[in-house]
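so the lab meeting is tmrw and i was supposed to have these ready like two days ago... anyway. pasting both below. for each one the top line is the aa sequence and the line under it is the structure tokens. i havent really looked at them closely yet so no promises
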Amino acid sequence: MVLIATERKRSSYTVAPITTDFGYAAYRVSENDSAALDHYDVLLAGEMSTCDCLGLLRHGHCKHVDCLTALRNAGRI
């Protein structure tokens, strides 16, 4: 379980690896606190990392990518 906190929201997520054909690490992050059972697929590919959340589309960056990148760099995933 991972806790992601921003200025506006604090949520816990379950992180599970998923398969990809791109040669990079990919994960599904599922929001535990959401009644809608939200989940997002994240591809960690350095500067080309992507997520299917709206934050990436709206703001050009994503808390899910940032968090998983930090966890990967720390050897936690």
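ok protien two:
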Amino acid sequence: MTSEPTSVVQEYFARIRARDISIVDLFDDHATLIGLGTTRSGRDAIREFYLDVIERAGPTPRSVGPLLAHGPRVAAEILIEPAGGQTVHAIDLFVIEESRIRALTYFLCAHGE
């Protein structure tokens, strides 16, 4: 069963908010995660990233606006509220292929509220 790209992204954010490490199952085996000057390739490297992020920061992202989709590409503007940290404004750019995240590139900047 094929999911629409926006459905996959919505599920991604639901799992992040739930601090559910099964978020990694949404990624393709050969996916790339790009951000903060690093590239993580493959599901194992991506799992290590999310294990650390979920344990250390416990992020709770919330949408700033609607998802923007064009074919397999989905953009999300979000605010991330890490446990005990400063709110961060982020833009996440997803490429979804065959109901899996093939690539996720994220851009962060400090955001004061």
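from a quick look at the 2nd one: The chain has a mean pLDDT of 90. The chain has two helices and seven strands. will dig more after coffe
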